[in-house]
Structure formats: C-alpha cells, structure tokens
Design a protein that fits this description.
The protein has about 180 residues and is of the alpha+beta class. It contains 7 helices and 8 strands, in the order ααββααββββααββα. The strands form 3 sheets. Strands 3-4-5-6 form a 4-stranded antiparallel beta sheet. The chain has a two-stranded antiparallel ribbon with strand order 1-2. The radius of gyration is 17 Å and the shape is globular.
C-alpha cells in the first residue's frame, strides 16, 4: 500500500478497513445548555479521522512519544526505550483539542489514549479493537475525546470502557431527552 510506504510503517488492519470505508470523517457538536450532574465537562463531542493528514499526524505523534519518553524526572534511559518501543506501532486516529491523541495499535492490539502530559489516562485502553472503540464512542454520543471528557465512561480500576449502565446509561438517557 502506498500510504504505508509514505508512513514507513504497517497500518493496523482495523485502520485499513476503516480507511477503505471512509478516508475522512469529521463530526463535532457543542451544547449550550446545562449539563447533568457528573457530565458538566461533556459540553461537546467529536470524532474525526483523515487519511490525507495521517503522515503529518504520525510525525507529530512520534515527536510527542520522544518528548514524553524522555521526561528526565520520571524515566531512566531504559524506561525511555521501553516507552518508545511500546508506542512504535501505534497510529494516530484522532487528535483531540488538548493535544492528546487517540491511537490504534497492533501490538498489543487496541485503541489507546496518549496523553502528551502523561496524565492518568496516558496509555489507557479505549477498546480491544478499533471497532470496539467506535462502538463504545458511539454509545456515549461521541463524547469529547479529551481525557476528562472520557473518564466518566471508563472503569479506571479494571482499565476498561463502560458501554451500558451507570454513567453511560445516565448520559445516553440525557442525550435522548435533548
């Protein structure tokens, strides 16, 4: 594939399938009304990807991996190498407003949150596959992609997403009423 040659890496199979279906998608919304308790920060939502911007996004992501892996106060050289290696096969799917990036990987497979400031969401799995992530994200109304907008829909203890009940159920119910 020509895109893989330009990128210098293999695109995860989930992404190849997605890009065959849709090379570019942008969807964004904002609420100007009061949000329900627990969701005050979810005043907007979005999902986007763009195959034409992928090379630039990958370069940006790789620069961030280098910066984050070398934070001297927290990492030694060995840890920096391990961090770079872990993020090496990840492909940016969606850049979010705060500079963080939602990425798709092959090893391990899944969708992960890359926090350029290494906040608590850094490295969190958002789905075991791209399709699982898209199902999760659609069920929460494509809630904003920033870490604090996704946290109400995650079980941080088990490092998993919630697709029904609890906070997801309350948010979806509110969305349906609106």
């Amino acid at each position: 594939m020509r895109v893989e040659q330009k990128l210098g890496m293999t695109i995860p199979e989930d992404c190849k399938e997605l890009f065959r279906f849709s090379r570019h998608l942008e969807f964004r919304y904002e609420y100007d009304e009061e949000m329900p308790d627990g969701f005050q920060d979810n005043f907007s939502g979005e999902i986007n990807w763009n195959l034409c911007l992928l090379k630039d996004q990958l370069e940006n992501f790789r620069e961030w991996v280098e910066v984050v892996s070398l934070v001297p106060a927290r990492h030694g050289l060995e840890a920096a190498g391990e961090a770079r290696e872990w993020w090496a096969d990840k492909l940016p799917l969606m850049e979010v407003a705060n500079g963080d990036i939602i990425v798709v990987g092959s090893s391990p497979p899944g969708v992960f949150y890359f926090s350029c400031k290494e906040y608590e969401m850094h490295g969190r799995k958002l789905g075991s596959s791209l399709w699982e992530f898209l199902e999760f994200h659609s069920k929460i109304g494509f809630a904003g992609g920033e870490d604090w907008q996704l946290e109400p829909f995650l079980d941080l203890e088990s490092d998993s997403v919630r697709v029904k009940g609890g906070s997801v159920g309350r948010f979806v119910e509110w969305l349906h009423k609106g």
